[in-house]
């Protein structure tokens, strides 16, 4: 067990929340076997854990290295994943102990499911998905790759959320129907507290209740 080294990529607010979840999954490992990875932070320690650069992490002598990426920006997340793949680092799935997962739920690798997340039934989720605290996904939803849910997202049934979409804190997405699911397009952003009642085109940011495109 001493040959395992585990990193949380991102020494920020979300990283601080993810580290205890990672520790729960590996209760027999020592504190020094867990580190934060951050290339833009000058601090050397955070909440009792070392903060290393990526190069320092790679140079560690442990033969088994696993990493989760606690960064909300999905484009940055994708870039870091490619970096980890180059070094053959294992991707870590993180799941709080009280996550609810019902029937026929498929989740791709590298997900982070925070406390009180609920995934009901007949759901397909892509790789490197983030669901922050108190978010839920209801029945018959399809979630793409690198999708991010901020805290308290309410994703109701028969919804399709495409790759790299970001759903803000407390957003509510109205339920679609089996023959006409509501679609959140690729790279779309749903603002904090927005109530989405119709499909959102790719790359568009919507805000408000009912949600409407943000005019810049």
From TrEMBL:
InterPro entries: AcTrfase_PglD-like, Hexapep, PglD_N, Trans_hexapeptide_repeat, Trimer_LpxA-like_sf. Keywords: Transferase. The record marks 140 as: Increases basicity of active site His. The active site is at 139 (proton acceptor). It comes from the Bacteria. It holds the Pfam family Hexapep. One of its GO terms (molecular function) is transferase activity. Residues 6-84 form the PglD N-terminal domain. Belongs to the transferase hexapeptide repeat family. This is Acetyltransferase. It comes from Alkanindiges hydrocarboniclasticus. The lineage of its organism: Bacteria, Pseudomonadati, Pseudomonadota, Gammaproteobacteria, Moraxellales.
């Amino acid at each position: 067990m001493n040959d395992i080294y585990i990193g949380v990529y991102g020494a920020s607010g979300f990283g601080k929340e993810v580290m205890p979840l990672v520790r729960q999954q590996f209760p027999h490992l020592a504190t020094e076997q867990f580190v934060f990875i951050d290339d833009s932070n000058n601090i050397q320690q955070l909440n009792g854990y070392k903060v290393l650069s990526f190069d320092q992490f790679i140079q560690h002598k442990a033969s088994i290295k696993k990493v989760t990426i606690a960064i909300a920006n999905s484009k940055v997340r994708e870039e870091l994943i490619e970096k980890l793949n180059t070094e053959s680092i294992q991707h870590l799935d993180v799941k709080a102990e009280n996550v609810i997962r019902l029937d026929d739920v498929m989740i791709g690798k590298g997900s982070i499911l925070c406390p009180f997340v609920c995934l009901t039934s007949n759901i397909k989720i892509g790789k490197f998905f983030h669901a922050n605290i108190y978010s839920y996904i209801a029945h018959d939803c399809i979630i793409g790759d690198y999708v991010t849910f901020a805290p308290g997202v309410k994703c109701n049934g028969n919804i399709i959320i495409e790759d790299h979409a970001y759903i803000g804190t407390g957003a509510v997405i109205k339920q679609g129907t089996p023959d006409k699911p509501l679609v959140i397009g690729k790279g779309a952003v749903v603002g904090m507290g927005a109530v989405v009642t119709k499909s959102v085109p790719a790359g568009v940011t919507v805000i408000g209740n009912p949600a409407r495109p943000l005019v810049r």
